[in-house]
Amino acid sequence: MQKISVKNSGEIRLQTFDDRRDGRLFIGEAMKNVPLKIKRFYFINGLMGKKSVRGRHAHRKLEQCIFCLHGSFVLTLDDGARKQTVTLDDPACGVRLGRMLWHSMSGFSKDCVILVVTDDYYKESDYIRNYEDFIQQVKAGKR
Ligand code: T46
After folding, report:
1. Chain centroid, CA 115 distance in Å
2. Domains of the chain, each with CATH number or no CATH
3. Ligand 1 centroid distance, CA of 138 (Å)
4. Which atom of ligand 1 is nearest to the CA of 56?
5. SS (H, E, C) the chain
6. What are 66-119's pLDDT values in tens digits?
7. How many C-alpha atoms does 12 have within 13 Å on its Cβ side?
8. How many angstroms does the Cα of residue 66 sit away from the middle of ligand 1?
9. Residue 5's closest CA among 79, 71, 66?
10. Given the DSSP bridges, would you call strands 102-106 and 54-59 parallel, antiparallel or unpaired?
11. Are 69 and 62 in contact (CB under 8 A)?
12. Catalytic residue at 103?
């Protein structure tokens, strides 16, 4: 994965064991190699390849880490000043989605499976779903 330069993000590396014909093992530990206290997880499958787009929002306070367990997709990150796209195609390699980071997922392979772990329960009030509102809040220094 290329170096992540936007704010409130960064690469996450899971520990791996390659047991050859017995498969591969991937390990994340909260507050060690996964930098949050995990309260919730969700996963996404059934994506319709290039037609699907998800995300397109930022979170005010929520911290998340996103992984591509199978296949690949493109993650677009925008901290209000800088934008970056990152391809996730390695289950051992995730990305931190910190607070006030506009993100979207697209370019899915049809076999793509995404896992997200978060440090809080679902709260719609934590979402900023309008890009202009996001930019205004970044300018107001809320990051
Ligand atoms: C994120 C990206 C990476 C719930 O009721 N509970 C939940 O835990 C989640 C994740 C979603 N929902 C409801 C809220 C919406 O009515 O499911 C619906 C779809 O959620 P959303 O449009 O936010 O889905 P994505 O895939 O665009 O975004 C998801 C996460 O919601 C979001 O926090 O950062 O993945």
Report:
1. 8
2. 9-139 (2.60.120.10)
3. 22
4. 27
5. CCCCCCCCEEEEECEEEECHHHCEEEECCECCCECCCCCEEEEECCCCHHHCCEEEEEECCCCEEEEEEECCEEEEEECCCCEEEEEECCCCEEEEECCCCEEEEECCCCCCEEEEEECCCCCHHHEECCHHHHHHHHHCCCC
6. 999 999 999 999 999 999 999 999 999 999 999 999 999 999 999 999 999 999
7. 28
8. 13
9. 79
10. antiparallel
11. no
12. no
Residue whose structure tokens are 């507050």: 31
Rounded Cα distance, 88 and 76, in Å: 11
pLDDT in tens, 42-72: 999 999 878 899 999 999 999 999 999 999 9
118 CB under 6 A from ligand 1?
Answer: no
Q: How far apart are CA 84 and CA 64, in angstroms?
A: 17
- Distance (Å, whole) CA 140 – CA 143: 8
With cut-offs at 50, 70 and 90, classify the pLDDT of residue 143. Answer: low
Contact between 90 and 68 under an 8 Å Cβ cutoff? The reply is yes
Task: Tell me, in angstroms, the distance from the centre of ligand 1 to residue 61's CA.
Answer: 15
Partnered with residue 103 across adjacent β-strands are 57, 77
Of 57, 59, 70, 103, which residue is the catalytic one? 57
What's the CA gap between 108 and 48, in Å, rounded?
7
